[in-house]
Design a protein that fits this description.
Blueprint lengths: L1 E6 L6 E6 L2 E5 L5 H10 L7 E5 L5 H4 L2 H8 L3 E3 L1 H7 L11 E3 L3 E4 L2 E7 L8 E7 L9 E5 L7 H7 L4 E5 L4 H6 L4 H8 L7 H11 L6 E5 L8 H13 L2 H5 L4 E4 L9 E2 L4
Parallel strand pairs: 3-4, 4-5, 5-6, 10-11, 11-12, 12-13
Antiparallel strand pairs: 1-2, 1-14, 2-3, 7-8, 8-9, 9-10
Helix pairs in contact: 8-9
Length: 270
């Protein structure tokens, strides 16, 4: 299995997940041109993208979804309530490109389990992805969860023991409250339906990381209320004081770039 962020942050979010030469996108919040350009950097051909899953309907997650789906002739997977939000603005699609998702689906030879997050959208979701038919009986697991104000119980269940995680480290609490955002926006971001703060994520990681966890990508960092250095130092400080540091000496944390793709992370099968 492999994964990479194509873009990450309030200006646009998209993640590619795949196995061999088959892939799908989690969100498509950047333009068609940017999507194809960033995939090319990773040496992933447009013909190797087989679908798009939408976590929620905010513009930084759906900006390019209609254009990309039409260009590549691929389906879009979303919940019924998110489709209600998408339909007026997404443009013309064939009926078979509109796939309603409840709790799980398969795409590109991958089994995708959907779980709720807590965000101020119609609905919001994360995913746990595994190979549908692993060769040796067990598959690596990739967990993705961005745009959530709290760590939900469903997140704990889905993300625990994943081999790789793409998870939100949106803001530093002190930077947010001392920064220039208006009061209502500070309340929204820090609330239960906003975004995760660095230390909130770290506390979640303490429960999710197990001995097999190899890679963690910190995503959706705020351009105003966080920095890659702040996010990494806060999270590493908390992790180093726990059993995680002793049991996962090869664990690597990285920050997703805002506009360019993260390097392709390849997880070898068991």
């Amino acid at each position: 299995m492999h994964l990479a962020t194509l873009a990450s942050g309030s200006s646009g979010n998209s993640i590619v997940v795949g196995h061999e030469k088959r892939n799908f996108l989690v969100d498509c919040g950047i333009s068609l041109k940017a999507t194809l350009h960033n995939l090319a950097i990773l040496d992933i051909a447009p013909s190797e993208i087989e679908g798009i899953f939408i976590t929620h309907e905010h513009s930084d997650h759906i900006k390019g979804v209609g254009a990309v789906a039409r260009k590549l002739k691929i389906p879009i997977y979303a919940s019924a309530k998110i489709w209600d939000e998408l339909n007026p603005s997404i443009g013309k699609l064939k009926d078979e490109q509109r796939v309603v998702v409840k709790d799980a689906f398969t795409c590109a030879g991958l089994r995708v389990r959907v779980f709720p997050t807590s965000h101020d959208s119609q609905e919001s979701f994360g995913v746990r992805v595994e190979v549908e038919q692993p060769v040796k009986g067990r598959s690596r697991a990739i967990g993705i969860a961005t745009d959530t104000g709290i760590v939900t119980e469903e997140m704990h269940q889905a993300l625990k023991g994943c081999d790789a995680l793409v998870v939100e480290a949106n803001h530093d609490r002190e930077m947010l409250w001392q920064g220039g955002y208006p009061w209502y926006l500070k309340k929204r971001i820090s609330g239960n339906y906003g975004h995760l703060e660095n230390s909130q994520l770290a506390e979640g990681l303490l429960q999710w990381i197990e001995g097999n966890t190899q890679r963690i990508v910190l995503a959706h960092l705020s351009d105003e209320n966080n920095t890659p250095e702040t996010a990494l130092s806060t999270i590493l400080r908390i992790l180093k004081e726990s059993r995680v540091a002793k049991e996962n000496r090869d664990l690597r944390l990285r920050v997703a770039p805002r506009y360019t793709p993260h390097e392709l992370i390849v997880l070898e099968e068991y």
